[in-house]
Amino acid sequence: MVSDQPLVLGIETSCDETGVGIVRGHELLVDAVESSVEEHARFGGVVPEVASRAHLEAMAPTIERACTQAGVRLDDADAIAVTSGPGLAGALLVGVASAKALALALGRPLYGVNHLAAHVAVDQLEHGPLPEPTLALLVSGGHSSLLLVPDVTSDVRPLGSTIDDAAGEAFDKVARLLGLPFPGGPHVDRMAKEGDPGAIPFPRGLSRPSDLAKHRYDFSFSGLKTAVARWVEQRQADGEQVPVADVAASFQEAVVDVLTRKAVAACRAEGVDTMLIGGGVAANSRLRAMAQTRCDDAGITLRVPRPGLCTDNGAMVAALGAQMVRRGRTPSALDLPADSSMPVTTVLA
Ligand code: KG4
Ligand code: ZN
């Protein structure tokens, strides 16, 4: 019998966070996350082998901690959900193998879900059922996409994505350039509060009419990153102090301007009145503020999960798994692959 409030354990290991979340229907019971971000800091980016090893070490203790904190036994789970892709191949493998072992040992169905769809589904834990369709803007260190989501369990349509760097990657690279620690997004956000967003007119990628014809909903941040680097180098060559706060604010403004402009344009063109923002960059204070203003002006309802649910976590995987159960989707086979380049149109493997 399919429960209307299934208890689902979700596992996420696509990047550097080992996430184990447990939900009952739309209710979040626990979100246990173990991050290896500090082990990558000195390299200025995530090192795949280091991430895989850290997942391996963190997996069993994190599952145990999640069950203890939620006050449930593994055996209580109605289903196991896991991120099947996209992500780092070795990192994904640890999660997928663990989830298979649990599903097999417990005799429960296994749902191998798409990481991006899970970023969308997580919002229901905080704001209730998702209007259908919803427009999702997903921005993190690994992805930047605009998605039309008629049904997060079966129908996710890509409208656009970055053609080079992800938005978070651009934040991290510019932070490094400015001498700020990794991951750089929160530091740029903080510095930008002291700076003038109009100080330097950095380029808005893929925003000229000629670009829009081909890349209406795509993003590009690599030209912006280069423009910031050239601007800083010129200052240094002239023997002048780099105004870090102004550079941070002007760079951030350029990123946030393009993200929100294209997301609102997509809502209008598709006739969608709900916009959701997810991924680590959704924690950015300027992105939240500008998105709110532009959505208000356009009569669009904005949904942004709290920062802890925007970054990678197991609760998002459990939330999507629970919805798969409720909608009666067919579980994945036990030979489910870890698919590093899983297309967003494949919501369930
Ligand atoms: O979703 P996430 O935890 O991991 C993946 O990349 O999948 O996102 C991490 C990214 C990093 O690039 C980080 O710099 C960025 O999110 N980030 C931010 C902020 N907080 C985190 N970027 C801008 N402003 C922030 N406040
Ligand atoms: Zn993510």
How would you characterize the overall build of this protein?
There is one protein chain. This protein is α/β, with parallel strands linked by helices. It contains 13 helices and ten strands. It has helices at 37-40, 48-70, 89-106, 115-121, 124-127, 167-177, 185-192, 209-215, 222-237, 244-270, 285-298, 307-310, 314-326; strands spanning 7-12, 17-24, 27-35, 79-85, 110-114, 134-139, 144-151, 155-161, 274-278, 301-303. The strands form two sheets. A five-stranded mixed β-sheet has the order 3-2-1-4-5, with helices on both faces. Strands 8-7-6-9-10 form a five-stranded mixed β-sheet, sandwiched between helices. A hairpin with a 2-residue loop joins strand 2 (17-24) and strand 3 (27-35). The model has no long low-confidence stretch (mean pLDDT 96). The site of zinc ion has 6 residues, from helix 4.
Quick rundown:
By secondary structure, this protein is of the alpha/beta class. The protein has helices at residues 37-40, 48-70, 89-106, 115-121, 124-127, 167-177, 185-192, 209-215, 222-237, 244-270, 285-298, 307-310, 314-326, and strands at residues 7-12, 17-24, 27-35, 79-85, 110-114, 134-139, 144-151, 155-161, 274-278, 301-303. It is built from 13 helices and ten strands.
The major pleated sheet works out as: 5 strands, mixed
Radius of gyration: 20 Å
**Physical arrangement of strands within the biggest beta sheet:** 3-2-1-4-5
What is the chains' assembly state? single chain
Tell me roughly what share of residues is in helical segments: 40-55%
| Bound ions, cofactors and other small molecules, one mention each | 5'-O-[(R)-(carboxyoxy)(hydroxy)phosphoryl]adenosine, zinc ion
Number of strands: 10
| Elements, N to C (H/E) | EEEHHEHEHHEEEHHHHHEHEHH
Task: Name the shape in a single word.
Answer: globular
Strand content: 15-25%
**Which segments are poorly predicted (pLDDT under 50) over 5 or more consecutive residues?**
none
Helix and strand content put the structural class at: alpha/beta
Q: Could you report the average pLDDT, rounded to the nearest whole number?
A: 96
Helix segment tally: 13
What is the terminal-to-terminal distance?
22 Å
